[in-house]
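Exercise 7 asks you to align residues with C-alpha cells for two separate proteins.
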Amino acid sequence: MWLSGLTAIILGVKLTQTNYSEEPCQEVERMEEIYDAQSVIGNVSVFCRFIQGYKDGWTTIHQRFDGTVNFTRSWDDYREGFGDLQGEYWLGLDNVHHITRSGPFELMVIMKDYNDERMWATYDKFAVLSEKEQYRLDLGQFSEGNVEDSLTLHNGMKFSTADRDNDLWSGNCAELYESGWWFKDCHAVNLNGVYQNETEYDKMMWGKKCLKEAQMLIRITKSSE
C-alpha cells in the first residue's frame, strides 16, 4: 500500500483497565488524548497514530524529530522507557515485549532525511523477546516501502547498550555509537543514534540515509485492509 504523501493523522484515545493481552489502538474512538493501557506489571501509556489508508491505529513505540531527548542511555533506561509521549520518546523494551508477545504484530518505520525526503518501510512481523533473552529482535519479512531493506541485518540480534554489550563485534558498538540498539557488528540501521543537525554517517541512520526524523509504529497484523 502506498501511503499518500505519508499523511499521518496523529490522534489518540484514553482507555482504562486494559492490559497487554488486548490490542492497543485498534477499533478505538479517535480522541485527542493519550491511550492508557493497564498491564500486569503496572501502567503504560501509549500514543496512537492513525495513518491514511489504514483502518486501525498504530502504537508508536519510538519517536524522534528534534534531538530534545538524549538517547545515550543505560540498559535500565532502555528497559523502562524514557522521554515524553507528546515529544521524543522510547516506550521501553519491557513494555514492547509484553505488548508484542500477545501478537502477531507488524512494524512500520516512518522517516525523513535532511533533504526532507519522506521514507517508510514495513515488516510483516515484529516482536521483542524477554529480558532473559536480552530483548532479542524477532523481525519478519520486508513487505513494502520506498527505501531499501536495511533492518533485516539486525534480525535475531540481542539489544545492546554501553553497559550491556551483546553485539557480535570484538568492541562495544553501543559505546562507540553512543546509543542502545540491536547491534550486530555494528549496524545498517540505528534509529537511536546521536541526533545531529547535519549529515553524519555514524549518527541516526537507515542504510546510507542520515535521518532527522524517525518513528517506529506497531499494530496487530492484518490479513487485509
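Second protein for Exercise 7:
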Amino acid sequence: VEELLARLRVVERRLALMQSSSLTGAVYENGGLVINYAQQCAYLNDTELHLTPIEYKLLCLLAHNTGKVLTHKYILQNVWGSNLESDMGSLRVFMAMLRKKLNSGQNSPQYIQTHVGIGYRMQKVD
C-alpha cells in the first residue's frame, strides 16, 4: 500500500510539473540548449535532439531544477517511479546517453555535473 501511495505521489508531481510548464508555454533556455515544454522537444544549437522518452524526462527534471543537486533516489522516483538500488545502473546508462547527445563537440559546455555518491545537477551555461 505504501509503495502504491508513493507511486501516486510521483504521478501527481509529474502532472503538476507538466501542467505548470504547458500553461505558461514555457521554453527553457540554457546556453545553446532549448527545451520547448509545450511541443515536448529539445534543441541544441538549433538542432533538434532525438531523445527517448526517458532521456526527455531526465532532461526536463534536471532543467526544472537547474543549479540544484538532485539525488539518485529523487531522480529514480520522478522518472521511473521507483527508488530501487537495482535501477541505479539504468540511471547511469541513461545519463551517459543524455550527456553524449548534449556534447556537441570538444569544447562544448558540460550541462550535467555528477556529484559522486549523491546525484546529478544541471548547471547554468553562458
